[in-house]
Structures are given as structure tokens and as C-alpha cells.
Amino acid sequence: MISIKSLSRRGFLNMGAAAGAGLLLPKTGLVRPAFAEAPLAPVDVKDAMIAFGHTGPVSDEGWTWAHDQGMKAVEAAFPGIRTSFVESVPYSADATRIFRQFVADGANMVFATSNYGDFLYDVARRAPEVAFYECDGRTHMDNLGTYYVQHWYPSYVAGIAAGAMSKTGKLGYVASFPVPSVYSGTNAFLMGARTVNPAATVQCIVINSWFDPQAATQAGTALLDNGCDVLFGIMDEAGYLQVAEARGAKAVMWNTDLRRYGPKAYITSIMVDFKPFYVEQVRRRLAGEWTPTYGLLPMGQGVDRDAWGETVPPEVAAKADAARTKMMQEGWSPFVGEIKDSKGTIKVAAGQKMTEEELYHWDWSIEGVSGLDA
């Protein structure tokens, strides 16, 4: 049995050792592991088949939709290539059967757009001639790589705008599960907000789903009823944005541009874009250059803030973007101690900068965030 943290596409499965030292690929944040064998043999585009196993429906306008756009980019870049996908792959033995069927159908490359752990690894071990990628994975093999995004940086930027636009200082967060991506997102968001409002707080409500418009709407309503006036979350749809629009509140979204569902409420979104990554990995696979990579796509290359909403004051946008520019041009990180957890314990010493590995695995709330820690 796997834990609740394993059941999230952005959670972590501690089922294998991380790869050792490797080559950092320029401008990508990805690493080519030192243990990788020779590249897999080239494949003619007319004989190639690329498969995608998705955690949700491609119509969600969120996480899965973004990955589906990546598949469409592959189709456009390589005319004649065959693609295949399955939506809403369950976290069960059915996942293994689906990934195994991809291989049986002739897939040369398989992308799992969520963390499927051993449901995927068993298939990869039995198909060494097939290239596999696991989004938000952490186990590496000669034919299995991993990828994810450094979303905590744009979350911090969005937090600055949220803190400046909030009248109550109470920020609400609609959470899927208490997993690292939620901890890092809420912590970064509040740290950004506290640069303009040191008394700001974040209240979280966990709905135990990535895609549940009704539950997200109910959670957003409850947070607003409790005094929050800016909402954030990690949902794959626009439920809480619509609540914010109806109630005269503000909201920050995830995955895609959803402003049409709440143009007055919309501040920005944590945007993900996997198209360049997918096209490049398929190109390498066809050319016979593919060995696995693993790591985090940086801000500006896979994740970023969306264009600001129509009600974001120019001075607020400028202040938030000053931090974004400093991150992108100077490599600045705001995640420097002293940082205490929600119980007041010092977790990051004064002057100590959190590593990307620590940010990726963040599993505790900072002071001011409530609703996630037991």
C-alpha cells in the first residue's frame, strides 16, 4: 500500500535511491545522470509512437490539459508521428496494465504525467528499449527520467501581489492533499505576502482531490466566510475563482489562464508549459540521442506567473515583478532563514538558504499557515 502522499501527481514516492552525480544541462535545470547507459537506438518518425498516461481528464483546463498541449506540440513538430493517451489513470494495478499496454502497442516513449511509482517502474524494468519519463518522480533508471517545475518561485511572486491587494491580511488556500507541492506553494505564497503585510496568514482547506469543482467551490466559500479575501489553490479547474468573482474577492490560480471565469477576481496563475520539454525529449529519442534526465524546470522555462489580471494595480505588479526579475536575472532566492514551522520551531537557521532539493521536498508549514499540519 502507498501513502496519501504517494497518491498526488505532485507528491513523492520514496521507493528508490536518487541518481548520483550527473551533468547539469545548460538552461534547463535538468541533470543527465552519470550512470546512464548509451543512448537508445534511433527511431524513424514514421515508426515512432509516443504515449501519455494522465492523472485527470484532458478537458480539465488545468494540469492534464497542459500536458495534452505538450502532446499536441509533439504532433505539430513531428508530422506523421503516432501518439496515444489515456485519461484519468488510476493509482492502482490498472495503471500498470495501461502502461504495459502502451509498450505492447509499440510505444517508443512513455510519459507518465503524474507520480505512479511502482505501477510504472515494473513496466519500465521489463521494457529497457522504451524511454520512460515520470512527472514528479524521484526514481531513476537507465530508461526512466523525471521532471517537475520550480513553482515555489512564481508562487512567491504571486504572494507579493496577493498580500498587497488583501484588505484583511487573511489569505485562503484550497488544497488537494497535504503533499510537498502544497506545502511549498502555501509557504512561498505567504512569504511573498509578508514582504508587504507582515501580519498576513494563510488558512488551508484540504479537499482530497485534484479535480472536484463542487468541493473546491465549497472550500472557497468557507474560506471567504471565515474572513479571507484572497484565494489561492492547486486545483485543476476554476471553482474557487468563480466564488471569488461572485463575492468580490481575489484569486490566484494554478496551471493555466482561467481569467475568463472571474476577470475581476483574477490576479494571476502559476502557469505550467511542458511543450518545449516534450518536443526536445521526443527529438532526442528519434535521433538516437536519448538518455534519461531528471530535475526541475526553472521559472521562465516550464513555469512562470501568468499575465496580471485587469484589476491588479500597476504599482503592485511592478513590486511583484521586481522580485521575479531578481530571481531570473540574479538567481536570487527568498527562501533564506530564519524560518520557523507552524509550531514555532526553527527549521532553517538564520542566513541559511534552502536548497532546491529541500524546496522540492518541503513537508512542513511555516508560521502563519494553518490547516495542513496535524
Structure write-up:
This protein is of the alpha/beta class and 374 residues long. It has 2 domains: 4-150 and 273-297, 3-Layer(aba) Sandwich (Rossmann fold); 152-270 and 303-370, 3-Layer(aba) Sandwich (Rossmann fold). The chain has helices spanning 63-77, 93-104, 118-126, 152-165, 180-193, 213-225, 239-247, 275-287, 314-330, 356-360; strands at residues 22-24, 30-33, 49-53, 82-86, 109-112, 131-135, 144-149, 170-175, 201-206, 230-233, 250-255, 266-272, 294-297, 303-305, 339-340, 346-348, 369-370. Strands 1-2-13-7-6-5-3-4 form an 8-stranded mixed sheet, with helices on both faces. The chain has a 7-stranded mixed sheet with strand order 14-12-11-10-8-9-17, sandwiched between helices. Helix 6 (213-225) packs parallel to helix 7 (239-247). The longest helix is centred in the C-terminal third of the chain and has 17 residues, at 314-330. Mean pLDDT is 91; it is low at 1-24. Pfam families: Bmp. One of its GO terms (cellular component) is plasma membrane. Residues 50-289 form the ABC transporter substrate-binding protein PnrA-like domain.
Q: What is the helix tally?
A: 10
Distance between the termini: 21 Å
Described by strand count, sense and barrel closure, the largest sheet is:
8 strands, mixed
The CATH superfamily of the largest domain is Response regulator
Taken in chain order, the helices and strands follow as EEEHEHEHEEHEHEHEHEEHEEHEEHE
Q: Which structural class do you get from the secondary structure elements?
A: alpha/beta
Shape: globular
Q: Strands of the largest sheet, in order across it?
A: 1-2-13-7-6-5-3-4
CATH architecture of the largest domain: 3-Layer(aba) Sandwich
Mean pLDDT: 91
The level of helicity is 25-40%
Poorly predicted ranges: 1-24
Q: What is the top-level CATH class of the largest domain?
A: Alpha Beta
CATH topology of the largest domain: Rossmann fold
Q: Count all strands and give the number.
A: 17
Q: What share of residues are in beta strands?
A: 15-25%
User: Compute the gyration radius: what is it?
Assistant: 20 Å
Number of separate structural domains: 2
InterPro entries: ABC-Purine-Binding (IPR052910), PnrA-like (IPR003760), TAT_signal (IPR006311)
Keywords: Signal
Protein name: BMP family ABC transporter substrate-binding protein
GO cellular component, one term: plasma membrane
